[in-house]
Amino acid sequence: MLEVRRNRDRGYDDHGWLKSWYTFVYADYYDPEHVDFGPLKVMNEERVKAGKAYPNEYRRDTEVLTYLIDGELRHQDSLGNEIVLRAGGLQCMSAGTGIRHTESNPSPSREAHLLHICFESTRAGLAPSYAQKVFSSDEKRGMLRLLASPEGDNGSLTIHQDARIYGGLFHEAERTALELPKNRRAFLHVVRGSIAINETRLNVGDGVKINPPGDVVIQHGRDADILVFEVAAGPQPLKRKSTRKT
After folding, report:
1. CA angle 34, 222, 119 (to 5 degrees)
2. 139: part of which helix (H) or strand (E)?
3. 68: which residues sit within 8 A by CB, 6+ positions away?
4. How far apart are CA 72 and CA 109, in angstroms?
5. What are phi and psi of 134, to 5 degrees?
6. Is 201 helix (H, G, I), strand (E, B) or coil?
7. CB 210 within 8 A of CB 216
8. Is the bond into 235 cis (omega within 30 degrees of 0)?
9. Cis (ω within 30 of 0) for the bond into 108?
10. Angle of CA points 52, 53, 55, to nearest 5°
């Protein structure tokens, strides 16, 4: 029911201006046991040095999300969007028929710390779009707050995939149950602090695949900030090597 992926077991690259930890296959990192999680193809934890920027990149038919943990990140794209994302913010870019974009750290002294997340889109040829939102700590305290969903339910961002993304903050007595429908599964990632899933302790950078049946309780947090990715249960993915580059 629970398959733990420890922080120390993730892939890692140091590019000087960028440090990256890979939960799933990405660029030159390959692990046949951790190719993806269904439609969730990329989840990289990244630290961008002050004043540095990602190369301008062209994408299509991909849902690209950025969850900013610390610092600031400036987004610019070919749709004309230019915005500075701040800590606690989530941006969702649907590349659709094609979009060119870049992200940069505008701070002269402070590192930007983020999660770079990609889902495959439900279908090709969608119109490209961009949205971002900051979810307050109060909205996530002691509960799982819906951050992104196919229909944009409850003020969440829209993602073109059968997936629901939740964020939660937990400390000490705060707890909640994770109720997965019969044909769903989830991946939980610890952004900060530590948390227990049932009685399994997870620390920052750890993740866990959660497959029903069974009760799942999120509890005993120590300044924990977590993300939960709920997707359809399906066959195990084919083992393949990614051709993505940083």
Report:
1. 30
2. helix 137-140
3. 85, 86, 87, 88, 89, 90, 112, 113, 114
4. 11
5. -100, 125
6. strand
7. yes
8. no
9. no
10. 140
Q: Two tokens at 45?
A: 């934890």
Length of the chain: 246
- Asked if 143 contacts 168 with a C-beta cutoff of 8 angstroms, the reply is yes
pTM: 0.92
pLDDT in tens, the chain (246 residues): 899 999 999 999 999 999 999 999 999 999 999 999 999 999 999 999 999 999 999 999 999 999 999 999 999 999 999 999 999 999 999 999 999 999 999 999 999 999 999 999 999 999 999 999 999 999 999 999 999 999 999 999 999 999 999 999 999 999 999 989 889 999 999 999 999 999 999 999 999 999 987 789 999 999 999 999 999 997 544 333 333 443
Domain spanning 2-232 has what CATH number?
2.60.120.10
| 80 Cβ contact partners less than 8 Å away, ≥ 6 residues apart | none
Encode burial over 221-244: b for 16+ CB neighbours within 10 A, e otherwise. Answer: beebbbbbbbbeeeeeeeeeebee
Q: Are 133 and 67 in contact (CB under 8 A)?
A: no
